[in-house]
Design a protein that fits this description.
The protein is α/β, with parallel strands linked by helices and 539 residues long. 47% of the residues lie in helices and 11% in strands. The protein has 3 domains: 252 residues, Glucose-6-phosphate isomerase like protein, domain 1 (Rossmann fold, 3-Layer(aba) Sandwich); 192 residues, Glucose-6-phosphate isomerase like protein, domain 1 (Rossmann fold), CATH 3.40.50.10490; 39 residues. It contains 22 helices and 13 strands. Strand 5, helix 7 and strand 6 form a beta-alpha-beta unit. The mean pLDDT is 97. The structure holds 6-O-phosphono-beta-D-fructofuranose. 6-O-phosphono-beta-D-fructofuranose binds next to loops.
Length: 539
């Protein structure tokens, strides 16, 4: 059964939230903190190795009560059951959405078209395990009988961003294999990567759910041609493997069936790192770490499915985001991890969040008259403090931010860690309290400069404080955002799991490429025509 279609703005709870917003929109959080010493405890969820403090938000208890009522009116619990049970919630593509099944235990039972998909998931997992262990321990070798040293993931979008982000985030746990990611159809990208590689010791993993994606097939073809300048056709089997749902197309490309790792159409590309799409993860950090990543995600799945509203981390984060997006009219939100390892985390989330909820047609096929998916962006702290934090502190835009930190560093350098965490705490405190005119005056600032040094504060943040960056905690963190996306999609009444919005540009690119190849330029708007002519003259 598909999800219900209910316009959230027509609910009783939404109307009450509107009046509530009018009543609290100008309140300063620091007043609430001063009035209520229990505020931080009240708005903190401690779960496993996660400490999630959402008290620095422009909410009070009534805000949460009203959002709980909204969740009930929108039948969120029912939607969550449908999500986990394999209902066709990706209605526009006629598919279930079951990335959660990929991390479910062996004895789980998840039905798609009446058949339990768990056994085949675990079969593929054991293929991943056997293959990655043989590559890592050197029993599987290249065509000149040398052990592999490098692994290149060839894919784009969900077939790149997820594995690339996880491999980068878990670099601490990496082995001797050097991972590389080739995604862009820009030939300079692939050539830049190739120039560092030895064909005798490099494994290529072609990842494409559809195996029709222009970028991936072009890069795979270029790489195979490069490889064949060194090895022979029969050596391809030792160096090229593929992950896809489209077995026929993979075989037509020349990959042996024993080198194909299957996936399923009920796994969305941007949520696929838990499937064989994560083969590069398993190769880079070992299968056991890959398994721990999945186990962490499964724990978050259970938390999300079973926890009550008040202590449900993804649900609370989703409602806070909706509060700012739809009531305060915030256009974006930032994600600031205080670890360099999560350097690619915001980029990964951009696809997960914006490809999912960047929709303007509701589940009844009608254009929405309220805001849906917001922009997400970010960079690790402390670097970002020296870049865009000025705008968050003193700009005209409201930018709610998630601050993600870890209590223990991986390399054990407590001197650096204490400095890092001091910044982590200081920023959210500064964003909360700001700096009053009286404080600026007390510093002896000259009258003319005073207004420039005043900070309004009252800028909302969530602090997601985790014990340590491990495969398991990373799994929990990613799954936390996946479920936040789900809840937001349910509330905004959109279909979160299709991505028709990326098709139009792709279709036009195919047409334009044909025009470039044939030299016969069709009718375009004058801007595009001029650009094509200019390119033809200058290429
Ligand atoms: O960008 C659109 C998209 O379909 C993504 O959703 C997907 O992750 C990506 O292209 C790559 O697709 P494929 O894995 O089929 O090559």
């Amino acid at each position: 059964m598909a999800l219900n279609s209910i316009n959230p703005t027509q609910t009783k709870a939404w109307a009450k939230l509107n009046s509530h917003f009018e009543a609290v929109k100008d309140a300063h959080m620091k007043t609430w903190f001063a009035e209520n010493p229990g505020r931080a405890d009240k708005f903190t969820i401690q779960w496993e190795d996660f400490y999630v403090d959402f008290s620095k938000n422009r909410i009070n208890e009534e805000t949460l009560t009203l959002f709980k009522a909204l969740a009930e009116e929108l039948k969120l619990k029912d939607a969550i059951s449908k999500y986990f049970e394999g209902d066709i919630i990706n209605h526009t593509e006629g598919r279930a959405v079951l990335h959660t099944a990929l991390r479910a235990p062996k004895d789980a039972n998840v039905l798609v078209d009446g058949a339990n998909v768990i056994p085949e998931i675990h079969e593929v997992k054991s293929l991943i395990k056997t293959f990655s262990e043989a590559i890592i321990n050197g029993t599987k070798k290249g065509y000149t009988n040398k052990a592999f040293t490098d692994v290149v993931n060839i894919g784009i979008g969900g077939s790149d961003l997820g594995p690339a982000m996880v491999v980068d985030s878990l670099a601490f746990y990496g082995n001797h294999l050097t991972p590389h990611f080739v995604s862009n159809v820009d030939g300079d990208h692939v050539n830049e990567v190739l120039k560092t590689l030895n064909p005798e010791t490099t494994l290529f993993v072609i990842v494409s759910k559809t195996f029709t994606t222009q970028e991936t097939l072009s890069n795979a073809t270029t790489i195979r041609e490069w490889f064949l300048k060194h090895g022979k056709q029969e050596d391809v089997a030792k160096h090229f493997v593929a992950v896809s749902t489209n077995i026929a197309k993979v075989e037509a490309f020349g990959i042996e069936s024993s080198n194909i790792f299957p996936m399923w159409d009920w796994v969305g590309g941007r949520f696929s790192l838990w499937s064989a799409v994560g083969l590069s993860i398993s190769l880079a950090v070992g299968y056991d770490n890959f398994e721990s990543l999945l186990a962490g995600a499964h724990k978050m799945d259970t938390h999300f499915k079973e926890e009550e509203f008040e202590t449900n981390i993804p649900t609370i984060l989703a409602f806070l985001s909706i509060w700012y997006n739809n009531f305060f009219k915030a256009e974006s939100e930032a994600v600031i991890p205080y670890t360099q390892y999560l350097n690619q985390f915001a980029t990964y989330l951009q696809q997960a969040i914006m490809e999912s909820n960047g929709k303007s047609i509701d589940r009844s096929g009608v254009e929405v008259d309220y805001q849906t998916g917001n922009l997400v962006w970010g960079e690790p702290g402390t670097n970002s403090q020296h870049a865009f934090f000025q705008l968050i502190h003193q700009g005209t835009k409201l930018i709610p931010a998630d601050f993600i930190g870890f209590t223990q560093p991986l390399h054990g350098n407590n001197d650096h860690q204490d400095k890092l965490i001091s910044n982590f705490f200081a920023q959210t405190e500064a964003l909360l309290n700001g700096k009053t005119e009286a404080e600026v005056v007390a510093e002896g600032t000259s009258a003319e400069i005073i207004p420039f040094k005043v900070f309004e504060g009252n800028k909302p943040t969530n602090t997601i404080f985790i014990k340590q960056l491990t495969p398991e905690s990373l799994g929990k963190l990613i799954a936390m955002y996946e479920h936040k996306i789900f809840v937001q999609g349910v509330v905004w009444n959109v279909f979160s799991y299709d991505q028709f919005g990326v098709e139009l540009g792709k279709q036009l690119a195919t047409k334009i490429l044909e025009e470039i190849n044939t030299g016969s330029i069709a009718n375009h708007d004058t801007s595009t025509s001029n650009l094509l002519k200019y390119y033809k003259k200058n290429r």
